[in-house]
């Protein structure tokens, strides 16, 4: 006998962008900033889609909308920076998520790193990765990138995104 899920009095919704957004608001995700060198200077965006893909070779993935202001640079970049944010960096996450913001202006602290990739200061961890593929996925691209080098020596606790807000871990 197979168990039937208890749907209560609610009627399931058909697939839609709103359903997907609503479901993923229930999913807590770590917050990262992806950076790259663009033709007109550094670009970057806040991502909650960061995922480990492979340990050998070390590889990760993230998603980006093809309508994002950073997409033109990411679409042609050989290397990207991946930054894991700490709970003390809520404003930095909001800056890189805001359309039209001067993401690399003060108070953002950063430097040019290996392969010309912008590296953000004060993060929990960062990686420089070589882009190996950009896979079409609806109105997004899934970027697969192989880790070249990085640093995991930052201190603090991770920043999370849940219910449309940035949060810290709770004990």
Automatic annotation (TrEMBL):
E.C. designation(s): 1.-.-.-
Name listed for the protein in its UniProt record: Flavin reductase family protein
InterPro entries noted in UniProt: Flavin_Rdtase-like_dom, NADH-dep_flavin_reductase, Split_barrel_FMN-bd
Keywords: Oxidoreductase
Signal sequence annotation: none
An MF annotation (GO) of this entry: oxidoreductase activity
Record has Coiled coil as a keyword: no
Membrane listed as a keyword: no
Domain Flavin reductase like: from-to ranges: 24-168
Species this chain originates from: Streptomyces prunicolor
Pfam families reported in the protein's UniProt record: Flavin_Reduct
Highest taxon in the source lineage: Bacteria
